[in-house]
Amino acid sequence: MSEVTDVTTQDPTPEGKLGQVKQFYTDVNSELKKVTWPTRDEVYGTTVVVIIAVFFFGAFLWVSDHIIGLVFKFLTDLLK
User: Fold this and answer.
1) How wide is the angle at C-alpha 45 spanned by C-alphas 43 and 50, nearest 5°?
2) Predicted pLDDT at 21
3) Total domain count for the chain?
4) Within a domain: residue 34?
5) b/e sequence 2-13, b meaning 16+ C-beta within 10 Å
6) Can you give the residue range of the structural domain that contains 45?
7) 18 assigned to some structural domain
8) What whole-number distance in Å separates Cα of residue 64 and Cα of residue 35?
C-alpha cells in the first residue's frame, strides 16, 4: 500500500500587497543562494569564444554575400 505523508505548507499568499512583495524578495534571495555562479576565468573564456565566433561568422557571411553578388552580377550581364 502507499504511505500517506502530512504536507504542511506556508500561507501561499501573505496578507496585503506589502506582504506579497516581502515574500517575493525573500523567495528571490533564497533562489539566488542556490545559483552556481561562473568563475572569472569561465566568463573570460566564454566571452573570448563568443567574440571569435562573431568575427568568424561575420567574415563568412561577408565573403558569401560577396561571392553570391558576383555570381548574380555575372548572370545578369550574361543575359543582357
Assistant:
1) 95
2) 93
3) 1
4) no
5) eeeeeeeeeeee
6) 39-80
7) no
8) 42
Residue 65 in domain = yes
Cα four-point dihedral sign 54, 58, 59, 64: positive
- For residue 14, count other CB atoms closer than 10 A to its CB: 15
C-alpha to C-alpha distance for 24 and 30, rounded to whole angstroms: 10
Domain presence at residue 29: no
The helix (H) or strand (E) run that includes residue 26 is: helix 16-33
Length of the chain in terms of residues written: 80
Q: Is 0.85 surpassed by the pTM of this model?
A: no
The Cα 10–Cα 29 span in angstroms is 17
Lookup: cell for 67: 561571392
Instruction: Name residues of the chain where pLDDT drops below 70.
Output: 1-14
